Fold this sequence. Notes:
Blueprint: H1 5-8, H2 13-27, E1 32-34, H3 36-49, E2 54-59, H4 68-82, E3 86-91, H5 113-127, E4 136-140, H6 142-145, H7 149-157, H8 162-165, H9 169-177, H10 183-199, E5 203-207, H11 211-223, E6 230-234, H12 260-269, H13 272-282, H14 287-298, H15 303-318, H16 321-335, E7 345-348, E8 355-356, H17 357-363, H18 370-378, E9 382-384, E10 387-388, E11 395-396, E12 399-405, E13 409-415
Parallel strand pairs: 2-3, 2-5, 3-4, 5-6, 7-13
Antiparallel strand pairs: 1-6, 8-11, 9-10, 9-12, 12-13
Amino acid sequence: MSMPSANAAALNPETIHAVQHALAITKRGCSELLVEADWVSKLVRSATTGKPLRIKLGLDPTAPDIHLGHTVVLNKLRQLQDLGHTVIFLIGDFTSRIGDPSGRNATRPPLTLEQIRANAETYYAQASLVLDPERTEIRYNSEWSEPLGADGMIRLAAKYTLARLLERDDFTQRFKSGVPIAMHELLYPLMQGYDSVALHSDLELGGTDQKFNLLVGRELQKEYGQEPQCILTMPLLEGLDGVEKMSKSKGNYIGIQEAPASMYAKLLSISDTLMWRYFELLSFRPLAEIAALRTEVEAGRNPKDAKVLLAREIVTRFHCAADADAAQSDFELRARGGVPDDIPEVALDLPQGGLALPAALKQAGLVPSTAEALRMIEQRGVRVDGAVVEDRTLRLQAGAVVLQVGKRKFARVTLA
């Protein structure tokens, strides 16, 4: 780390060490830190004056639920919070009504104020599982955005050019393709940037898809005579498939409020390669410890051992150690072909001649369709009372049976 030349000689070794440590924490797992030299100067000033830096994360509550992908940025915020800095959890109740088109080819429909408030309440409650709520400043950008009025909006718009706004990738692509760009969309980066002015932000965090908006905030602070914020972008976490960004709509996500057993099993299902990405972005273990673990795996240790450590850490964070123990026991029982104690119980009507197995699987909620049931039978993925079934024409008779699809789906079915 290069220290500011004007201050380096005056800094004592303890301060230098503190700044180096803070910089290492800041950069762990990040995509980009702009401008690093400016951030070092801010850290030095904070270390020498004892005044915390103001670190901002703005979130539009467009959905109420948080998955592990969202926690990549929240984890970083908590790490900086633990260094003693002021963390500002900014809820974009005003900007949500505009709608951010980031990474989209069309406009995102704006939310109603009622939807925004309901989502924000749930979102922050879940975010508090990562952040320390006692040390988090919660703000709403309607505080300063609504009082701007028409005159304030015009004055704000005068501080940025259309040419600069059209440098944003999605605007550029849509403009070239003849896809409409509504005027209100151009206001979104300006309003997000103005948040940084209102909050006197020293550092703003966001995903890599937010880089343009974060830079607007930096430029607007200069226009308003403030020291420009630094920006820290974090990677977008891949989902369970290892390809697409983690997303509830794509079904490749792990919700932070999922049941411990489900969370644990999903983490054990990721690929050996993706596991290290999750360690880097989700684990709080020291980097040296992760590097040593990776060396052991490359030398022949079973990768599952590492996944178990990761899964236990994540489940413990969002639940507790006892839940992690139970989730691990449940997973191992299922892997041995055992039946967990807590499985759904379903009562089905028995037609004359018995109930076809594919229909039973669908009615028990183990598959979405009979076609999927047939596919799973063909792949030897269906068990009846622990025995693999390959007969597509099997009919179940009166009585109780345990049906299993794959490794994790069970139902105790009673036919009468």
